[in-house]
Design brief:
Helix content: under 10%
Radius of gyration: 19 Å
Strand order of the largest sheet: 6-5-4-3-7-8-9-10
Largest sheet: 8 strands, mixed
Strand content: over 45%
Distance between the termini: 38 Å
Structural class: mainly beta
Number of strands: 24
Number of helices: 1
C-alpha cells in the first residue's frame, strides 16, 4: 500500500526563494515543425529503462499532442490528437497522426507515454481518452487507455490493436471527471507515464489526478497504478502518492526517473491553478525526491520548485518532461513577454538539470544530445 505525501502551502511559500529561472526564449527558438500545425505536450518512444529508442542511424521517434492552428490557441484542446515526429539532433520532421481516424475511444486524445519492446518491434502507447467518440458536445471525462502497433525502421506505426482501458476510476481513491469545467478548473485522471523500477522490476503508471471528497476546489494529486514484473499489462489501481489538496488543482504530466540511487518525481503546473487564498507559485517544473516509490516523497529544494519560466515571460514554456540523461523537453507557449499572446506551438529548446539529493536546478540550455 502506498503512503501519501503532501505538497503543502508551507512548501510553496518557499518557491519565491528557491528554484532557477529558465533562459528567455527568443524568435530564433521558434521553429514550427509543420505548416498550420501547433503542437504541445511531447514524449519520446522509450525503452523500458526510460531512454529514448534509437533508430538505425540514431534518430528518435517522438509523440506530441497536435491540432490545426487556431486564432485562439486554447481552441486546440478540443481538437487534440497524438501525432508522430522524427527527431534527428535539433531537427524535427512531422510524420502524421499516431492512431488512425476512429480508433481512439475519445473525442480527443490527451497526453501519455510510449514504450518499445525490441523483441517483437511493438510500441505500446499509454494515453488519455478525453470525452467519448461521437459526442455532440465535448465533455471533460478522462479515461486511461493503452494500444499497440508495429514500429518499422522508418519510424512509422501500423497495425494498431489491443485497445483497452488501463484502470477504471475508483471513487474512494480518485475524483470522477464526468462533470464540466473550464481550462484550469477541470479535474484530472490523465497523463499516464510509464516507469519500470530497476530495483524491483515492477511496472508503474503515474498520472495526474484529483482527491475525492475534498472541501477545496484545488485538490490536485499524483496517482499511481502498479503491475508485477512478469505481467506488465496487469495494472492495479493504487491510492495517490502525492496530494496538493488545498494548494493546487493540477499536477500535470507527473513522471519518475531514477538517478544516483534516488527516485525523482516531476510534474508541471501553472500559476493560475494555485489556490489564490494561499501562496501562489510560478509556472514551472516541480518535483519531489524519495528513496522509495511508495512514499516518503520530499519537495525538491524545500519548495518543490525545480525551475520556473523567466519573470519577463512567465508563461513562455510548459509541459516539461525530464529524461534519464537529465535533459528536459517542453513546448513554447506564450513566449517573448510583452503585451498580447504569442503562442509558439512548437518544441522549445531543451534544458538540462543538475540533481544532487534533495536539490535540483538548471545546468544549461541543451539543444541536442
Amino acid at each position: 500500500m502506498s503512503e501519501i505525501s503532501s505538497w503543502t502551502c508551507e512548501h510553496v511559500k518557499l518557491a519565491g526563494l528557491t528554484g532557477d529561472r529558465a533562459p528567455l526564449i527568443g524568435a530564433a527558438d521558434i521553429a514550427p515543425v509543420a505548416d498550420a500545425l501547433d503542437l504541445w505536450d511531447a514524449w519520446p518512444v522509450q525503452m523500458r529503462d526510460g531512454f529514448p529508442l534509437q533508430l538505425p542511424g540514431g534518430d528518435e521517434i517522438w509523440m506530441a499532442l497536435a491540432s490545426p492552428r487556431f486564432d485562439d490557441p486554447d481552441a486546440r484542446h478540443g481538437h487534440a490528437r497524438i501525432h508522430l515526429f522524427r527527431r534527428a539532433g535539433p531537427n524535427w520532421r512531422h510524420i502524421g497522426p499516431a492512431m488512425p481516424d476512429g480508433f481512439s475511444p475519445g473525442s480527443r486524445e490527451w497526453s501519455g507515454s510510449a514504450i518499445y519492446d525490441p523483441e517483437d518491434g511493438i510500441v505500446t502507447l499509454y494515453f488519455t481518452a478525453a470525452g467519448r467518440r461521437g459526442e455532440t458536445e465535448l465533455t471533460f471525462e478522462q479515461r486511461l487507455f493503452s494500444a499497440q502497433a508495429t514500429l518499422d525502421d522508418a519510424g512509422a506505426c501500423s497495425g494498431w490493436c489491443n485497445l483497452g482501458e488501463l484502470v477504471v476510476i475508483e471513487p474512494a481513491m480518485y475524483m470522477e471527471t464526468t462533470t464540466g469545467g473550464e481550462i484550469g478548473t477541470i479535474k484530472a485522471f490523465r497523463d499516464p507515464s510509464y516507469f519500470r523500477d530497476p530495483v524491483s522490476g515492477r511496472h508503474y503508471q503515474f498520472f495526474a489526478a484529483s482527491i475525492p471528497g475534498s472541501a477545496s476546489a484545488y485538490n490536485g494529486a499524483v496517482g499511481v497504478a502498479i503491475a508485477p514484473p512478469d505481467q506488465p499489462d496487469s495494472w492495479r489501481l493504487m491510492p495517490p502518492i502525492v496530494s496538493a489538496d488545498g494548494v493546487n488543482n493540477e499536477l500535470e504530466r507527473p513522471h519518475v526517473i531514477r538517478h544516483d540511487g534516488h527516485y525523482y518525481l516531476f510534474w508541471s503546473t501553472q500559476r493560475h491553478v494555485f489556490n489564490p487564498d494561499g501562496p501562489v507559485g510560478p509556472t514551472g517544473l516541480y518535483g519531489m525526491v524519495s528513496n522509495r516509490l511508495d512514499g516518503g516523497w520530499r519537495p525538491l529544494n524545500g519548495s518543490g520548485l525545480v525551475f520556473a519560466n523567466p519573470e519577463q515571460a512567465p508563461a513562455q514554456a510548459y509541459s516539461w518532461m525530464v529524461l534519464p540523461d537529465l535533459s528536459v523537453t517542453s513546448f513554447a507557449d506564450n513566449w517573448g513577454g510583452g503585451p498580447g499572446r504569442r503562442f509558439g506551438g512548437c518544441f522549445a529548446p531543451f534544458l538540462k538539470l543538475i540533481l544532487d539529493g534533495d536539490h535540483a536546478g538548471l545546468e544549461q540550455v541543451y539543444h541536442a544530445r
